[in-house]
């Protein structure tokens, strides 16, 4: 997995501790057979991490997956977990990575 670095645009003063700031990386676990295909998790993910897979589950619904190449972009905010009406998603905080502050 590539090492993810969060890029935070800053206008004005740059924080003095910018090189010490870490952000979480989440691991998304989806129980595909509980999914009803509503798409809430995809719509509400602030990082655009999720998409519908090409497959259907045993109930006949298309279920979400992590987009290829976006594995390190989840910030473990838990939004997908909270909005899922079927409790099909669990997010675990796997690690912390540095944040890159970008001057604008
Ligand atoms: S935890 Fe947050 S960033 Fe990660 S996939 Fe869910 S909604 Fe997206
Ligand atoms: S919010 Fe839950 S039920 Fe809806 S698509 Fe995502 S995993 Fe499936």
H and E order:
EEHEEHE
The number of helical segments is 2
CATH architecture field = 2-Layer Sandwich
Radius of gyration: 16 Å
Strand order of the largest sheet: 1-5-2
Strand coverage percent: 35-45%
Largest sheet: 3 strands, mixed
Total beta strands: 5
**C-alpha end-to-end distance:** 29 Å
* Estimated structural class: mainly beta
Number of domains: 1
Low-confidence segments, given as residue ranges, are none
The helix content, as a percent range, equals under 10%
Question: Would you tell me which CATH topology applies?
Answer: Alpha-Beta Plaits
What's the level 1 CATH class?
Alpha Beta
Q: Mean pLDDT, as a whole number?
A: 89
**CA-based shape:** elongated
Ions, cofactors and other ligands present here are:
iron/sulfur cluster
What tags apply to this protein structure?
single chain, 104 residues, mainly beta, Alpha-Beta Plaits, two-stranded antiparallel sheet, 2 helices, elongated
Layout of helices and strands:
Blueprint: E1 6-10, E2 22-30, H1 40-44, E3 50-56, E4 62-66, H2 79-83, E5 89-103
Parallel strand pairs: 1-5
Antiparallel strand pairs: 2-5, 3-4
The structure holds iron/sulfur cluster (SF4) (2 copies).
One iron/sulfur cluster binds at residues 26, 28, 45-47, 49-50, 74-80, 91.
Structure description:
- The chain is mainly beta.
- It has two helices and five strands, in the order ββαββαβ.
- β3 and β4 form a beta hairpin.
- The longest helix is centred in the middle third of the chain and has 5 residues, at 40-44.
- The protein is elongated and about 50 Å long.
- It starts with 5 loop residues before the first strand and ends with a strand.
- It binds iron/sulfur cluster (2 copies).
- The site of one iron/sulfur cluster (SF4) has 16 residues, from α1 and β4.
- One iron/sulfur cluster binds next to α1 and β4.
